[in-house]
């Protein structure tokens, strides 16, 4: 099968883990070729957004319908080792906790099996005017399915 170079890369689930691969480009680094610390948050954001898409959660539709949107309410990142220009990275995301109006996602940035950074992100579901509200029930159910798969693997 010939790969399609006209389609964007998509990650996907391997069991309970969502996997998203990317390469470190020059724009991601400082002059020493080391990834700038804030760019790890960008890498994690791309992976989380792709995870939601892979889980069947359509953020764009709810945004356009005026129902609500996710916003990061809390972000904790622990940096362990630097990523460098040209590195191939894997971001692994797992659902850690689901509440009526939020979801907490654990993320790891990995290079060749070595964890470079760990993040724990809480995304709150907000109304268009910025107030917390219950996220769609089918989204909560999907997150619970993913979380249950995580527990089954332990």
Describe the structure in brief.
The protein is of the alpha+beta class. It has helices spanning 37-54, 59-65, 137-153; strands spanning 12-14, 17-23, 69-79, 88-99, 102-111, 114-126.
Structure notes:
It is a single chain. The protein has 154 residues and is α+β, with helices and mostly antiparallel strands. Helix content is 27%, strand content 36%. The chain contains three helices and six strands. The protein has a six-stranded antiparallel beta sheet with strand order 1-2-4-5-6-3. A hairpin with a 2-residue loop joins β1 and β2. The relative contact order is 0.20.
Write out key terms for the chains shown.
154 residues; Thiol Ester Dehydrase, Chain A; 6 strands; globular; hydrolase; YbgC/YbaW; Acyl-CoA thioester hydrolase; EC 3.1.2.-
Shape estimate: globular
Q: Architecture in CATH?
A: Roll
Intertermini distance: 36 Å
Total strand segments = 6
Q: Averaged pLDDT, please?
A: 94
Strand arrangement, major sheet: 1-2-4-5-6-3
Along the chain, the helix and strand elements come as: EEHHEEEEH
Q: Output the radius of gyration.
A: 16 Å
Indicate the CATH class: Alpha Beta
Q: Low-confidence spans: pLDDT under 50, at least 5 residues? A: none
The number of domains is 1
Fold topology:
Elements: E1 12-14, E2 17-23, H1 37-54, H2 59-65, E3 69-79, E4 88-99, E5 102-111, E6 114-126, H3 137-153
Antiparallel strand pairs: 1-2, 2-4, 3-6, 4-5, 5-6
């Amino acid at each position: 099968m010939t790969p399609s170079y006209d389609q964007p890369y998509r990650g996907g689930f391997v069991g309970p883990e969502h996997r998203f691969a990317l390469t470190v480009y020059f724009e991601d680094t400082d002059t020493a070729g080391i990834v700038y610390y804030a760019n790890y948050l960008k890498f994690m954001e791309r992976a989380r957004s792709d995870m939601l898409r892979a889980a069947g959660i359509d953020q764009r539709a709810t945004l356009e319908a005026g129902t609500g949107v996710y916003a990061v309410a809390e972000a904790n990142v622990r940096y362990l080792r630097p990523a460098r220009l040209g590195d191939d990275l894997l971001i692994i995301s797992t659902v850690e906790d689901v509440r009526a109006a939020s979801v907490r996602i654990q993320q790891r940035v990995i290079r060749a099996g070595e964890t470079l950074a760990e993040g724990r992100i809480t995304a709150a579901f907000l109304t268009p005017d910025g107030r917390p509200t219950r996220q769609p029930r089918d989204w909560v159910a999907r997150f619970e399915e993913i979380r249950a798969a995580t527990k089954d693997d332990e």
